[in-house]
Structures are given as structure tokens and as C-alpha cells.
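About this split. The held-out portion is used to measure sequence recovery: a designer receives only the C-alpha cells and must propose an amino acid at every position. Recovery is the fraction of positions where the proposal matches the reference. Here is one held-out target exactly as it appears in the evaluation file.
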């Protein structure tokens, strides 16, 4: 599977497009998300974005529940809905027309436009492509249990990321079923789907359906 950014993500659907073009692989971009948000935020128009606290920018058309927590730095894009008790810990770039649902936690992430994380999701050290969707209760696990560095397993190939923390990379139009766990270093190709209650590690090719580790079938 080709794991390069250009093969997974349409960069026209995020404010991070120019930033991501610098990198070959998406996990290489995770370290600079905080600085990226601070740079982008400083250039946003105050006519379009409110700044409710330092280094937090919320588009005037976005809806943020009064019980949601917006940690700095973060950017909330146009027409995005941040629902009750959402916890944005910081370093979250959330695009346009997104849903950050009840009790969802985001940390060090890029959510492209039209991404939905609607119910009880944890997304950390991850990038979610255009129109990707996390089913209720699905999470990205971003630290290995033995605390060793994350390795991306791509078929027989093992790619050292050099990172202790890496969640998942979702290509455009990915669907993740309810209560699934995406283990550290998981990469899902464009238009792939994951069955509910799955435990996924490694890579899933574009246009494939993950039923379990022994049954990953082409979409028909």
C-alpha cells in the first residue's frame, strides 16, 4: 500500500494543505501541529473568527455548546458543531462542516473538512481525512502498551516512525464502525470501511472492507 500523503488525502479540504505538502508520510506532520495552528490562527480574519481566549479561534458560523472545553491552541472551522461536553485538549485543527460530538476528546489532531467524530470518540495524534467518520465509541489508541516506538506495519514491510505517540491516519471517505479500536500506527486507505467492534492494526488498502484481520475484502 502506498502510504504517502498524496495517496491518502485531498489537501484542498484543510487549512493545513500547504503544511502537509512538506512531508512524504502523514505521521511526519504530527510534531508540528501546535506550531501550525498558532501560525494559521495569527493570520485569520477577526471579521470571520472569534477569539474567546488566547490562541483559540472559532469561526463565527460554528456552534459550540456552553459545556464544551476548547483548549489552546485550536481552530474551529466554518459551520462546525462542537457538542456538549466535548473536550478539545489542544493542538486541534478542526475543519469546516465537522462534528465534534458529546464527550469526544481531541488532542494533537488535524480533522479535514466534513469529518464526523460524533459520539464518545478519542482521537489523539491522528489525521482524519475529508468526509471520514468515526462511529460511536470508536477510538484511536496512540501509545503502545509496552511504550516502545510505533512501527507502521504495511504488509511485510515495517516502517519505523520514531514516535512514541501515533494514533491513526484515515484517508478520505473512511468509515470506522462503532466501538472499534484503531491501534497505534493504523492507516486506512481512501474509501475503506471497518466493521463495528473491530481491533485494527497495520494498514487497510483503499476501497477495502476490514471484517477482521483475516478477512479484508475489496469493496464491490
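Reference sequence for scoring:
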Amino acid at each position: 500500500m502506498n502510504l504517502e500523503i498524496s495517496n491518502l488525502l485531498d489537501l484542498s479540504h484543510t487549512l493545513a494543505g500547504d503544511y502537509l505538502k512538506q512531508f512524504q508520510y502523514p505521521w511526519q506532520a504530527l510534531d508540528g501541529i501546535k506550531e501550525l495552528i498558532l501560525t494559521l490562527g495569527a493570520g485569520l480574519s477577526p471579521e470571520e473568527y472569534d477569539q474567546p481566549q488566547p490562541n483559540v479561534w472559532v469561526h463565527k458560523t460554528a456552534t459550540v455548546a456552553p459545556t464544551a472545553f476548547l483548549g489552546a491552541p485550536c481552530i474551529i472551522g466554518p459551520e462546525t458543531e462542537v457538542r456538549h461536553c466535548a473536550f478539545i485538549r489542544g493542538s486541534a485543527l478542526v475543519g469546516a462542516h465537522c462534528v465534534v460530538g458529546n464527550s469526544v476528546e481531541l488532542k494533537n489532531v488535524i480533522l479535514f473538512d466534513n469529518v464526523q467524530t460524533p459520539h464518545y470518540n478519542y482521537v489523539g495524534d491522528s489525521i482524519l481525512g475529508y468526509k471520514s467518520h468515526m462511529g460511536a465509541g470508536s477510538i484511536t489508541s496512540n501509545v503502545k502498551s509496552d511504550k516502545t516506538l510505533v512501527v507502521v506495519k504495511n504488509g511485510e514491510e515495517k516502517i519505523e516512525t520514531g514516535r512514541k505517540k501515533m494514533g491513526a491516519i484515515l484517508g478520505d471517505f473512511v468509515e470506522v464502525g462503532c466501538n472499534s479500536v484503531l491501534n497505534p500506527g493504523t492507516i486506512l486507505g481512501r474509501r475503506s470501511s471497518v466493521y463495528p467492534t473491530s481491533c485494527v492494526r497495520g494498514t487497510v488498502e483503499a476501497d477495502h472492507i476490514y471484517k477482521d484481520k483475516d478477512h479484508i475484502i475489496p469493496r464491490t
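Annotator remark: Helices lie at 5-8, 17-20, 33-42.
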